[in-house]
Amino acid sequence: MIRVMVVDDHAVLRDGIVHVINLEENMKVVGEASGGEEVKAKAAHAKPDVIVMDIHLQEECGVDITAYLQAHHPEIKVLMLTVADEDHYLQRSLDAGAAGYLLKEMTSKELVYGIVNVWKGHCVIPPSMTKNLLKNYKNRRDSYTGDHPLTHREKEVLMELTKGLSNKEIARTLFISDKTVKIHIRNIYKKLEVKSRSQVMLYAIQKKLIPPMNA
């Protein structure tokens, strides 16, 4: 069962999203919120697996809330759901640690798809926005990673990250300690100049290590 929280300051829209999610047998809405402080309090109590987050909230920007959640509850996947189709909003969201980004013009089926896939650890982005995003990442990575290649073990950890595995799961898979996994991930982030697992996914897509996970 995927536990979902819905964050939107428009009650009618929030009710519609909640209705769509609750129709799914493998999903359950465990909380709703309309602003930043409410999200922070309810997320700590409800412990959702995925938060569907609007960007433009009255009290606080959804991007800033996402950054807070990733700092205090990194196990929660944040799926941005917004009308903002500008590249800089997408970039800011991923930099803050969002696991996916969907536009409100999408269908109910695409919303469900997005929730399931970010829950699995994949990065979900609208096809219309993927090309420019990957181009930007290619420019950033190509100018940096050539002089600082990943070690063999770091590449192994990277591939496990793209599968959506937790640190503990990676440790068990590679027969290393949790502490060692954290060190490798920190080194990967530094070398690739990324801040989140969603950005690691984009790097892997850009390098054609894995196929794109488009909504």
From TrEMBL:
Query: Organism, per UniProt?
Result: Halobacillus salinarum
What's in the keyword line of the UniProt record? DNA-binding, Phosphoprotein, Transcription, Transcription regulation
Record-linked PROSITE patterns? HTH_LUXR_1 (PS00622), HTH_LUXR_2 (PS50043), RESPONSE_REGULATORY (PS50110)
Where does it localize? Cytoplasm
Q: Which CDD domains does this entry report, sorted A to Z?
A: LuxR_C_like, REC_NarL-like
Give the protein name, as stated in the record.
Answer: Response regulator transcription factor
Q: Where is the HTH luxR-type domain?
A: 143-208
Q: Where is the Response regulatory domain?
A: 3-119
| UniProt signal peptide | none
Among its keywords, does the record have Phosphoprotein? yes
Q: Provide the positions where the record notes the PTM 4-aspartylphosphate.
A: D54
Top-level taxon in the UniProt lineage? Bacteria
Q: Name one Pfam family in it.
A: Response_reg
